[in-house]
Amino acid sequence: MMNTEELKLLSYNLRKKSLEVAYGAGRNGAHLGGGLSTIEIFAVLFGSIMKYDSKNPLSEERDRLVISKGHCVLAYYSALNLFGFLSDEELALFENNGAFLHGHATRSLERGIEFSGGSLGMGLPFAVGVALALKRKGSPNKVYCLVGDGECDEGSIWEALMSASHFGLNNLVVIVDKNGLQYDGKTSDVMSADSLSAKFQSFGFEVSDVDGHSTKKLVNAFCSFSNTTQPKAVIANTVKGKGVSFMENVKEWHHSVLSEAQYTAALEEIKNEYAN
């Protein structure tokens, strides 16, 4: 398990790598806002929480990570690269013609990708099915599923939550990247969910509501859940475009093209933030 300083350095490297990958995509652009908001979540999952072996990615002893929020692949691919699932050469081809890595993940168990992202609201039902299968096999491994707060507009999310509670899937941990923005604007304007914590609790979940950019608080949240039969959820309060001032809370950076000047400025900002 990485300590706080190691997770801070990992978060910096993930943010730097994500910007590098986005810049490399050129005019194809990338989902920058939702990628940068999830950096610390991936740092904690890969650095401290999940059980996996990148040299044996098909091991039945692995925890499963399902990315239902398809627009976070910059952070996801960068983590897969830094932890040995994806090569530098594969990552450099992101969004290029004929490449394997797209703006939404495509399933490849050999590369550590459990599920094809895409249509929002589909990943969580898949995660529920995997968690149910593992429980019936008597496996001690867990299923982690990352969803977006805008994605929670989808009815399939709530059907999946009901199922998780009904089947007592305490091996399922749902992480909500709650950055308050979606493609069309503020989530509070598009479809207000009021308190996501209260809603998850009403669906039978044990919930921890934390600062999603504090690796320490995220680690504590994942490690402090009880042994009850309740499924678990971490509501991670984040900032879309976190770390780059001209991207933070700006919906136009949901998906955009990064110019050379913007790329240079963004790198300088995250370098200064890491130094402080």
Question: Which geometry do the CA atoms define?
Answer: globular
**Amino- and carboxy-terminal Cα gap:** 23 Å
Please, what is the average pLDDT? 95
Q: Which parts are unreliable, with pLDDT below 50 for 5 consecutive residues or more?
A: none
Oligomer: single chain
Radius of gyration: 17 Å
Largest sheet: 5 strands, parallel
Q: Order of strands across the biggest sheet? A: 1-2-3-7-6
Tell me the series of helices and strands, N- to C-terminal: HHHEHHHEHEEEHHEHEH
Structural class, by secondary structure, is: alpha/beta
What level of helicity do the residues show? 40-55%
Count of DSSP strands: 7
- Tally of contiguous helical segments: 11
Strand content: 5-15%
Question: What is shown here, in short?
Answer:
With 276 residues, this protein is α/β, with parallel strands linked by helices.
